[in-house]
Write a structure and sequence with these properties.
Layout: H1 11-29, H2 40-46, E1 54-62, E2 73-81, E3 86-96, E4 99-107, E5 112-118, E6 123-130, E7 142-151, E8 154-157
Antiparallel strand pairs: 1-2, 2-3, 3-4, 5-6, 6-7, 7-8
């Protein structure tokens, strides 16, 4: 015999749940302005090789990574899309006087990722799926946190247990 279980929540609990849901969504929406995700000048700087591939910017977080440098740095997670392949990259750029400047770029080597956070210690954290031993090229499946630190124009991979 199946029993039907019904939970009755006070009205305040539902408002809290709805409010938290709205709050989480709105904070995610403030990572980047929609127009900056389609900025042709930024796309041109990211794809500086001049190839014919398409550039799709996935997310941007503004964060002061180098207080001595002019402009405010931005961490950009983006994808190069070719006719039969794609590649996800992370870059650090700066906008100075209306011009974009590429400061660092790193290929994620087949991983799919979401930009999770940028910390005060210049730690960039990505929530990623990396290729497993039996995964087809299209479909990485191994969950992993990828961590990079921006320093002196480079994105260095942070390895647990190694002091940098």
């Amino acid at each position: 015999m199946l029993k039907r279980i019904t939970h009755i929540y006070p009205a305040g609990a539902w408002l809290l749940i709805v409010g938290l849901s709205w709050s989480l969504q709105s904070s995610a929406d403030t990572l980047a302005k929609p127009e900056s995700l389609n900025d042709p000048a930024l796309k041109a700087v990211l794809n500086y090789d001049g190839n014919e591939e398409g550039v799709q910017i996935q997310s941007i977080i503004k964060h002061e990574l180098d207080p001595g440098a002019p402009g405010v740095e931005q961490v950009v997670l983006w994808k190069v899309i070719g006719p039969t392949y794609w590649s996800v990259l992370i870059s650090v750029v700066s906008e100075q006087g209306g011009q974009w400047k590429l400061l660092a770029r790193r290929n994620l080597n087949g991983a799919e990722a979401e930009l999770e956070s940028v910390g005060t210690d210049n730690l960039i954290v990505l929530d990623a799926k990396t290729p497993g031993p039996n995964d087809p090229i299209c479909c990485p499946s191994q969950p992993k946190k990828l961590k990079y630190r921006y320093s002196l124009g480079k994105l260095l991979e942070v390895t647990p247990g190694v002091i940098q």
